[in-house]
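User: Can you write out an input/output pair for a complex, sequences first and structure second?

Assistant: Here is one pair. Inputs:
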Amino acid sequence: MTFKLPAIDYLALAPMLVLFGAACAGVLVDALVPREWRYHVQVPLSLVALLASGGFVVALANRKEHVVTAGSAVVIDGPGLFLQGSIVVLGIVALFLVAERRLEPGGAFVAQAAVVAGSEADRKQMRKPGVTEVYPMMLFALAGMMLFCSANDLLTMFVALEVFSLPLYLLCALARRRRLLSQEAAVKYFLLGAFASAFFLYGVAMIYGYAGKVDFRGINEAVLGSSNSKTLLLIGLAMLAIGLLFKVAAVPFHVWTPDVYQGAPTPITAFMAACTKVAAFGGLLRVLYVAFERSSWDFRPTLGVIAAATMIVGAVLAVTQTDIKRLLAYSSVANAGYLLTGTLSMNRDGLKYTMFYLVAYGFTVLAAFAIVMLVRDSDGEATHLARWAGLGRRSPVFASLFTFLMLAFAGIPLTSGFTAKFGVFAAAVGGNMTWLVIIGVLSSMILAFPYLRVVVLMWLSVPGDDTPTVSVPGAFTAAALFVGVAMTLVLGVAPNQALELVNDAGAFLR
Amino acid sequence: MIMIALLVVSALGALAAFLPAQFARFVSTGLAALAFGLSLAMYATGAGFWHEYDKPWVPGLNLRFHLGVDGISWPLIVLTTLLTLLCCGYSLWKTPDSRLIGLLLAMQTGIVGAFLALDLVLFFVFFEVILLPMYAVIAGWGGPAKRAAARKFVLYTLFGSMLLLLGVYLVVDQTGSADLAAPKGTATMAAFVFLALGFAVKAPLWPLHTWLPDAHSEAPTVGSVMLAGVLLKLGTYGLIRVAIPVAPEAAAKAAPVLGGLAVAAILIGGLVCLAQTELKRLIAYSSVGHMGFVLLGIATMSATGLQAALIGNLAHGLITGLLFFLVGAIKDRTHTGELSQLGGLRDSSPWLAGILGFAALASLGLPGLAGFWGEAFAVIAAAQRGWWLGAALAAVGGALAAAYLLRMLRKVTHGSSPPRLTGPAGYELAAWVPLAVLTIAVGLAPLLITDVTGPAVDALVEAIQR
């Protein structure tokens, strides 16, 4: 028996190949280049790789030719390219945050996280230039995310899921400050993530049992015409959904989110909040829209309940938080609910506006975490909300920017948050999910409250003795902050270009 | 173009707050005066829109930058710019803080925008823009319990906006258009209910009014003036411009309920006022009653009722604005608003007592002053509609207004005479006199208003009865 290699369209895969290649090169750099030089090689290398990858995405988008390649394992279509492009752009901004070294000597990461803080060994490693393995890991994660959004069968999707999850588990554990918290977060994320992956894989097996195929087109045909028992399909779909809903942090699979968001180094938290969300929803959209569209009667009520629970639980728990990173974590949970609302519209608008929402939310959340990175004292970031009291008087510029970002999260008009929410809710009304929109609208009212509380705290409280200062950002953080805020404004005031982009992306290729 | 100029001038006034503090507030106030001039210059006559501007903004979201002004919106726009200008002038001397003046102009931008908007989504955008400046005014310059009051205000009104947003979604989904210039009028009851609830919170209609007294009693004087003078009008204007035209059939069915609630608001507002012990809360609750008359007029959906509502809106803006300025002046001098601690104003400051008496008489609807026409014709419209009981009860509510306002006057102006208070300062007179003069003018010649609003109201009634 001979195996024939499938034909591969290398150009179509180029955005991912570039990143995988650069990630491997990054590993070699860490092995071969002298320690002092690594940072100065890794950062440009990653940046160039991401720019090149973005260039290929644009070139492919202009080609307007949608292909299924690598033996139908990967599909390059409009929405897939849009999602890939978003991941690259958000990834670049996240890279800026990761590369920031001015706030703390050596950056936010530590090489040997297991060393006890303050010990002799720790002082020794403090003298060395900081860890640089984070850059190849980030590139691996980004490439995995891109593959996840354009996988054409469940197995490729699973591989991609693991490729982007494993580096994230590691990245979570590398915080220089509050190491135990960071490692605890990583262990939690890893264990729960492993369970979720197992569920996903089990679901793949069930679906294979039902459809006899794992590629999306085949599943779609089977859903349409198979005479097999529907039980297998439903069990399989439920298992797949659990795996995916874990990644998007939907209730009740969200419990890891606050701990991981709080424990992980802030640049990584930002990276997860922006890029992982895009990837996870990209995958979810593709699975639901391409493979299981015909059984939407089966999953819409259940997923609708999950979306409603996600919005309500996220919003209500956000109200009670006292730590800014946990607050943003619960807000990210609630936002997953809005995104699910858009996803469940199951129409063209739903796809469009969910993708728009992902990008809008990504930029805002990156900028918000950039500011969290800047508010610090001698112990590192001051994330407790009580410490933010009176920040408006200490540094009005950053407090204004953060206020603007909070308003965007709250969905006030003229920010990207309003445009995005308006879009997904309108799509859901069009998709006969009005009950979900009612819950969404009410929950976003609840959710506005914690954001306003932060704003009030910053502006109306008197600064105490322990109100931290806002550090002067380095060029990287400043750039990330600028891009994030500017995009939040642009997507709020003049979102036409971006809406045209998602519109032109068209539908998924089946 | 003049409409855009008005919005731009208002927005620039808000941004001017970032200029160096010495002259920022003068620049802002100057721009407020310019905005007032522009709003006057928009005047024209006839039915239909006097000025219109229509450009797509975000086609993907059905959002058009569609502005227009007609007889229904113009008086309210002028009222807004006038009150903003008076508040700015007042703040210039009273609380010389450029941030406060900037926030007032930011609010004006939103309010005028909402009055101008002829696109439902655009209307909502402007409607939301108002929320935060008002929140900041209450939370930043308010009384001792300002935080709680500001929070209550923001939660309630956000709740209202969210209901409104749901209504917007449903209207756009059901009629496929967000146009308010020529609405299709095919939206269903569900859409109407959401829209009406959203506006009812803003107006506020009993029983959704409980945020109002807290917000008023804690807000600074200018905040109260803006809140009572123009912000509440957005609710009633929204009903006239948005909710009824997009869903006339549903509105006709819901009209008796709306009318019933309006009558309840009139009576309950009046009774609650009789039991108030604090001056600002009393005026705030009186707003609930007065807005009840306006809503009653709207609920009749007849030309008479809508005319009454529009003139009542305007009169309430003038009179309550004046009342809040006066109460602010009293509280500044005596440092209390408790009726039990006030008294003898007649002796200690005859000037203030006189103008307060005038404003109270205007507020209770004395014929010859602005408050009379709106309330009298709302009752007449209700009777014409056949709601005899409602009309009779509303008339009783009018008598209640006389009772509580006279009680207030007795408590404040009569009684033991405390030491003399300082006379009115120039900046206070500058804020009071225009309002008092307009109150008399509208009271003596209501045709000033009805001639402006008449053609537009007739066109509206014709459209919704079609």
